[in-house]
Design goal:
42% of the residues lie in helices and 9% in strands. It is built from six helices and four strands; from the N terminus they run ααβαβαβααβ. The chain has a four-stranded parallel beta sheet, with helices on both faces. Helix 4 links the parallel strand 2 and strand 3. Helix 2 packs across helix 3. The two termini are 27 Å apart.
Length: 208
């Protein structure tokens, strides 16, 4: 919450929190949420998903036995919920139009973590969180394949919770998320447009 507050303060943007946090949302609930957002803002240029759920009992090692219920709860919150929520905002993002290369219209951002990386994950217990965040990475890659040709751009960002200050993380996120579009294949900055890249608050690329 501190990171979100700093991010909103840094951008000067209005922060809208969706109603209903049930991981078992129904299609009707999602339709109602879309209609509610439509009344508030009409269209959405930039969508940032900040879902971050840690099941308190997700602390078993493989030798202790993995808790199936805990794993499923993590997947509902960290994978299904972001996917469902993206479905609710896509109709509103379709109304946005990018006017120039510095425009961030139709940009989708997922706040993620290095724990979702196969290479950087150093956990020896607590499988649900890492697995569910890795699943979101794969889903986002599928979103890119479908939506990139339709004018959407994507960002994935790790605020490094607990390792840098919320203010510093928000500033880094602001700079990265609002970076303009890039259509010059010879420009190295285009790499983040052409492929899905996760960067952290220190601007490092997190390997998958």
């Amino acid at each position: 919450q501190q990171f979100l507050h700093c991010l909103g303060t840094h951008t000067g943007a209005e922060v809208i929190f969706g109603e209903g946090d049930s991981p078992c949302a129904k299609k009707a609930d999602l339709t109602n949420r879309t209609e509610s957002l439509s009344l508030q803002c009409g269209k959405i240029d930039l969508y940032i998903d900040t879902t971050c759920f840690h099941e308190e009992n997700d602390n078993k090692t493989v030798k202790e036995g993995i808790d199936r219920a805990v794993i499923l709860a993590s997947f509902r919150e960290n994978f299904l919920k972001p996917v469902w929520y993206l479905e609710t905002v896509l109709p509103l993002m379709e109304k946005a139009e990018a006017e120039d290369e510095n425009d961030t219209a139709k940009r989708i951002v997922f706040i993620n973590t290095a724990e979702s990386s196969i290479n950087w994950n150093i956990n020896a217990k607590g499988y649900g969180y890492s697995m569910s965040r890795a699943a979101l990475n794969n889903a986002t890659s599928t979103f890119v394949n479908k939506l990139l040709p339709l004018g959407y751009t994507f960002r994935m960002f790790d605020p490094m919770y607990g390792k840098v200050s919320a203010k510093a993380a928000a500033g880094a996120c602001y700079g990265y998320v609002l970076r303009g579009r890039c259509d010059d294949d010879g420009d190295p900055r285009c790499q983040d447009e052409r492929r899905l890249v996760i960067r952290d608050a220190m601007a490092r690329e997190i390997p998958w």
